[in-house]
Structures are given as structure tokens and as C-alpha cells.
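New to this. Please check this fold:
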Amino acid sequence: MAEEVRAEMVSTVLEILVSVGDHVAVDAPVIMLESMKMEIPVIVEAEGTVASINVKPGDVLQQGDLIAVIS
């Protein structure tokens, strides 16, 4: 089953830490976001493979926007 990783708040994408096809462990950071001058790591809650990355650095996200899919 795929896990959709979504933005928890309005933020800007600072850095993408993984690539499509990478294996990620539980609690691994995959993206760094910036909100209110704070850097916030986006953490995955399930082990798997990065199936897609739906953002790029500089993108402004709204709460609930799809960031990545882990399968």
C-alpha cells in the first residue's frame, strides 16, 4: 500500500533529500520545508521506496498538498 506524504502547513520547499527509486526507512527525512523562518523536515511514517516526488525546490505548498508517494 502506498503512503502519500502531504504538507502539514503552508510552507516552501527548501531541499529534496531523496530521489525516485530510493529506499527509505521509517522516520527518514525526505524533504526540507521552510515555514515562518523555521526549517522543518518531512518524515515518512512507513518504510518503502520513493515512487514519486511531486514538488521541486522553491514550490509554495498549501496544507494537504501532495509532496511524495512512498510504496
Summary: The chain is about 0% helix and 55% strand. Residues 15 and 44 are 15 Å apart (CA to CA).
